[in-house]
Amino acid sequence: MSVQSARKPRADSQRNRERLLEAARAGFGETGPEVSLDEIARRAEVGIGTLYRHFPTRDALVGAVYRREVEALAATVPALLADHRPGEALRRWMHLLVDYMATKKLIVAALAGPRDDLYAVSGQLITEALDALVGAARAAGDIRPDIQSADIKRLLSGFSFGAGDPDWADSARRLVDVLMDGLAR
Questions:
Q1: CB neighbours (10 Å) of residue 47?
Q2: What is the pTM for the complete model shown?
Q3: Angle between helix 86-110 and helix 58-75 axes, rounded to 10 deg
């Protein structure tokens, strides 16, 4: 390992990277998967060369946005469990998952080809988050003791049906609430 690769990124470089990721996420949300790299650089208030230094290809940028979104979703678990009863933490996390699913749809549409590696990592993070939340909710008696996180994953996969519809996210959030009512002891 060279001395240069062992160094932390400069603070301004890290800020630029974060601005690019946020601008890309916003661009996908507002414009869709066809948002141009020039537009993303403009939104981030950096030059196109800065974008390419951080993300040499469009897929590298899209993949980084996707990873950032799923990591942010998984990172909410400790705070949710600290601030709420486990059952309520699970409900709130599933509402956040609906938001993630909506964002994921836009991001995946921007990927040029199959990204099994990206999906495997995100699937693992989501499974670990769900395992922690379901385990805590079961232990607290907030949900039935026979419920497994795999059961909830199966149910949630159906929530993605109709994700292209304009009212899909509101409907999915209502279904999360119905699901949680049904899981209560």
A1: 13
A2: 0.82
A3: 180
Q: How far is CA 63 from the centre of its chain?
A: 12
Distance CA 94, CA 89 (A): 9
Q: Which residue matches tokens 């899209």? A: 62
Domains along the chain with CATH numbers: 1-56 (1.10.10.60), 59-185 (1.10.357.10)
Q: Which of 132, 130, 172 is closest to 151 using CA atoms?
A: 130
Contact yes or no for 141/128 (Cβ under 8 A): no
Give 59-97 pLDDT, tens digit per residue.
889 889 988 989 999 999 999 999 999 999 999 999 999
Torsion of CA 7, 13, 15, 21, to 10 degrees: -100
**Residues whose CB is less than 8 angstroms from the CB of residue 102 and which lie 6 or more positions away in sequence, other chains included:** 163, 168, 169
Q: Are 12 and 20 in contact (CB under 8 A)?
A: no
Residue 10 near residue 92, CB atoms below 8 Å:
no
Examine the pLDDT at 146 and tell me if it is beyond 60: yes
Question: Which residue has tokens 């509101």?
Answer: 170
- Measured distance CA(91)–CA(176) in Å, rounded: 7
Q: How far, in Å, CA of 127 to CA of 97, rounded?
A: 12
Q: What is the pLDDT of residues 47-59, one digit of tens each?
A: 999 999 999 998 8
Which of helix, strand or coil describes residue 91?
A: helix
